[in-house]
Amino acid sequence: MSIFAVNHLCRELLRDHAFRAAMKADPAKALAPLDLTDEERKALLAGDVGALYRMGVNAFLMNYLPRFEVCGLNQQNYNERMRAVKVNEVGDPVA
Q1: In whole angstroms, what is the distance from residue 32 CA to residue 45 CA?
Q2: Measured between alpha carbons, how far is 81 from 73 in angstroms, rounded to an integer?
Q3: CA 20 to 30 Å from 56, out of 9, 16, 46, 91?
């Protein structure tokens, strides 16, 4: 169920301007009340979109992270990190 929370968080960046401002100002504080695993929280704070993608976070929704430049992400480093994810012939992430 927690991956749903990460997907929802990404969507809320688009819709909720106050949440977006909180994520830009202090991501750790903004994430504190959310129902996330330690692994998800750590990946978000590190801007580790590759790990989030391998966990099952929706890549389309994750695009809101660099779009609004939260969690240390911008379009360039987001693209680099996503391209580094190894995928199989149908595009599913592999270890």
Answers
A1: 11
A2: 10
A3: 16
